[in-house]
Task: structure prediction
Amino acid sequence: MANFTDNWTSNPKPYKPPVPVGPGVPVVGYQVTATQGVGLPTLDGLPTPEIMAIWEVAGDTWASAPDGAPLVLMRPFMSEEKDKYRWGRRDYLREPGYDVTDSKIREMAAAQREELEKNFWAGKQLAYGKDAPVVVPEGVVGIRFRGGDWEGVPAGEYHVVDLIAEKIDQEQLAPFTLQIEGGHGTFWIKPEVLGGVDESAAEAAAEAGLNRPVPVATIMAAFQAAPQSWAQYLPQDKLLSNGPELHYVTNEQMGAANVVERMPTDDEVRRAAAARDQRYVDGLQDPGVRLGNDILVNAGHQGIGVEYHEALHWFSHTAVRTVLGWHFNEGTTEYFTRKLLAEPGLANTVRRDQDQYRNQIAGVTGLIEHHIVSEAQLAAAYFSGEVGPLFQQFSVHTEDSLSLQAYAANLGRNSGAAQEVLGNLLG
Ligand SMILES: [Zn+2]
Result:
């Protein structure tokens, strides 16, 4: 069994750079004060990960920076500074063994996909003969034939002109591409996008008359009824005094919010709608998003629990998002959302789409089901930034042979493979 203790590497994709100091150079080091507390950020000669890729790190020793960022004790490797320990931002580092775990999961995923291509997609391919009609739903991106770049394909009726035995993007599931033609032109699209966005939960909610705005008081009451192990992180007064602002918005506002990354102005919505770039189109159908102190809920997606999911984001600590990434953060948010919505008082007020964040939540739930971490530990990490114990627990249970960070990073379309690799190891 591979056992890794050396070769920490810089994380090429920390979630967001911290407050930049100087011309585009992020601060990664913090002074260790006499009391072992964390002082102000310092630049005194500590190399940034862009410059230096290898560190020695005391991975069991964690602290928090003044801005809440998780820190680990580290020292520069192979330099005259090597005897000076410093606190460094953990989100800038990948643990040893990240690459080994990552490639294990990718290999497993490739094998699973090959199986899927043989069975599922081979059958699907037969359905797309020449001239077969296809209906493109809103929110699809494709490549304009002989046009070059990715852009939003206008929704509407098209027909198949050609079936190309190639993928147009690495993430593509189907082993072939459709060339379609319609009133708006000719495009290459990935066949899987024709499934469209599943809106059955929103439709069921509307049918049951549940598609109404949720008052903040209802969200607070739900938080209070949560199990004590994590209700403690949801103080009412915080929500009351300085709580998030809830906005019910249109598809177009959601799309524009995805471009400007805050509540967009009317002008920004008009501009984004005219440009229709990929980020705008990707955002159109988002049911909700939390951007700073604003929670945006798509008005067409009421009654499906978006408000609770986004309010949990608002209460969450940045550590899980920055250190374990988007997928793990969504999986954890959804884990607590579903727990909350299962409370007797709430169960009949929403219709939650069980498919949403399916990959992400399965990966997080897997850690609990394998008894690697407890719900209380997950809550402490998510709400309070105590991610250290998650790493320690994972390392004990996998006998140091898998990287939690790589597992977490693969909870998107490779989630099934990540869980299988973990499951095989635990036996
Ligand atoms: Zn979310």
Notes: The chain is about 40% helix and 20% strand. The chain has a mean pLDDT of 83. The pocket of zinc ion is lined by residues 309, 313, 330, 333 (CB under 6 Å).
